[in-house]
Amino acid sequence: MLDTIDNAFIFLIETLFNLYILILMLRMILQWVGAHFYNPVSQFIVKLTNPVVKPLRQILPPLKGVDLASMIILVALEFIKLFLVIWLKTQMLPGPIGLIIMAFGDILGVVLSVFFFAIIISVILSWVSPRQYNPLTEILHLITEPLLRPARKIIPPIAGFDISPIPVLIILQFLTMLIANPLMNTGLRLAVT
Questions:
Q1: 31-67: per-residue pLDDT in tens?
Q2: Between the N and C ends of the chain, which has fewer C-beta atoms within 10 Å?
């Protein structure tokens, strides 16, 4: 019975933390790509994150375009999430160095996943409703274009089909397997020993 309760709490913790971490990550990515502040998607993300980010931003203003407040909150949420999950799974206090390594590995994984799924959604929308404007397609274009533009220079369209997303998706998965996953595994070993 205790395992069922622990698993339910682990699911709840991971789901709630991961959703808010994703929203914070999107806020940072949208700032990085220069998304229009009045875009409804941007407004939605800002309104969800401002209650947490705004107070800390008074102490830590952005530095050279980097939103330090969002970044610190993101790392802190990752740290807390991983601490709670490992503690519930092992009934031991995890090591802080391992948690820090895991947090950075998980954050990198989230960044790579955001770009991966943004490209997938963008490709699907280009098939379903090409050249149709809506606020989401504008955001997706801003997120994916920094990755797809260099790929398009190397791989031009073939018979009218843009296949540049394919190598970018492969590279994103490769980076996840090469960097993010090993960081998570190394951090987990250090956290539980």
A1: 999 888 889 999 999 999 999 999 999 998 888 878 8
A2: N
| Pair 193, 95: CB distance under 8 Å | yes
- What gap in Å lies between CA 42 and CA 40, rounded to an integer? 5
The candidate with the shortest Cα–Cα distance to 39, out of 143, 144, 134, 147, is: 134
SS3 63: strand
User: Which pTM does this prediction carry?
Assistant: 0.89
Mind spelling out the 3-state secondary structure of 76-141?
HHHHHHHHHHHHHHHCCCCCHHHHHHHHHHHHHHHHHHHHHHHHHHHHHHHHHCCCCCCHHHHHHH
Q: How many residues does the chain have?
A: 193
